[in-house]
Write the structure tokens for this entry.
Amino acid sequence: MSTKVAIAALKPTAAPSPRRQRPVPPADLIRDDDFSPAGVSAIFDLAADVKKNPRRYQHALEGRSLAVLFEKRSLRTRLTFELAMKSLGGDSVFMDSAPQRIPDREPIADVARNLERWVDAVALRTFSHSTVEEFAQWSRVPIVNGLSEMFHPCQALTDFFTLGEAFGRNGVARGKVKLAFVGDGNNVAHSLMLTGALCGAHVAVAVPEAYQPNAEIVARARDIAAETGAKLELHVDDPGAAVRGAKAVYTDVWASMGFEHEAAERAQVFAPFQVNRALMAQAAPDAVFMHCLPAHREEEVTAEVIESPQSIVFEQAENRLHIAKAILLTLLVH
Ligand code: CP
Ligand code: NVA
């Protein structure tokens, strides 16, 4: 038995509910499919309750602490995790690893085995996804992936929660609400595909040929979709095909953190993928516009679209906080 599994077994568990069996939470949230479909649903239930009744949870994590270690910049992820911890009665400490990478100063295994002596959970933002994986292998406390080059699970959970608020969770779970992601097939797209599959949702992804999502992640999302009834479409070089009839049009920056040096070249390739009035006109009449933020106006989205009444980007940003609380409660208290 790995140390992690042994420690997970020691974590306090809630008394079984006479009415309802809660799904067993994962030890960490490293990638979206660490949660089961039932686990995602439970996160949404908890986030909705936390959002409605914040005072009910104000002492839930009293005496507990979170370390936030980021190799890259952040507004939303850093602040929502720190604020979530504090408003649940706990505490958080931030360590800005930028511009270094965590292993530049000392081995990941050593950093992990220091932190587990001081805190109850660690949120990481890293360049390499393998840093998060290695960290989790050495850590006896839960690890939350606050974005790696491959995944952004906290964002995708927030996005499907927000979509459920906009159109109803049942509709999303029955594939009646098509979400079209238009842009770079990397971390955000990967997480939307996986979390969408776990939710039973309809996700259509449109990417330029040279920026397709990772084939193993697409295959994994398709496997999950086969179990949940989710629909996954992948369109190469055809944003219109993904957006037609969509209830949500989602995009992300063209040059993610770590790829800024490719910005000029990417601007050319991604130009036909800009979310503008013409592309939005191909979506459903009541479609919403979504973006994880930060956004670059007149690049991946026009100012007109992101500032329009269709835009729900600040609802997404608000929900990052409620989802962060639900994740921390699930990993630390279940
Ligand atoms: N969406 C998101 O993760 O934002 P930050 O990079 O500001 O954390
Ligand atoms: N894909 C973007 C997401 C930022 C929240 C990046 O990795 O920079």
Remarks:
- Residues 313-333 form the longest helix (21 residues).
- The pocket of phosphoric acid mono(formamide)ester (ligand 1) is lined by residues 74-77, 147, 155, 292-293 (CB under 6 Å).
